[in-house]
Design a protein that fits this description.
Layout (H helix, E strand, L loop, with lengths): L1 E4 H6 L1 H7 L5 E5 L2 E6 L5 H10 L2 H15 L6 H12 L1
Parallel strand pairs: 1-2
Antiparallel strand pairs: 2-3
Length: about 90
């Protein structure tokens, strides 16, 4: 894992983009991590990554976790139907 200050990343962005293929690069501002630069291999990987940080998806996951804690889990097909309905 590499670490790069924002100013250095801005000055050498192309080099860091190539380097991200070898592993994540932690971007820092004033010595504190503020972002991660990741290489994406295909559109499906990008979609999964974006979905993982979508607030609505996180709400659905938390609702599912709560149902499981209450022993009221939902089935696989119902989960995907709710996800599809929420994205419409």
């Amino acid at each position: 894992m590499k670490i790069a200050p924002v100013a250095e990343l801005k000055a050498r962005l192309s080099a860091y983009l190539r380097s991200s293929a070898e592993g994540p690069i932690v971007v820092t501002r004033h010595g504190r991590p503020v972002a991660v630069l990741l290489s994406i291999d295909d559109e499906e990987e990008l979609e999964r990554l974006l979905l993982a940080y979508t607030p609505k998806f996180q709400q659905i996951l938390e609702a599912g976790r709560e149902q499981i804690r209450e022993r009221e889990g939902i089935g696989h097909e119902e989960f995907w139907q709710e996800l599809e309905d929420a994205s419409s």
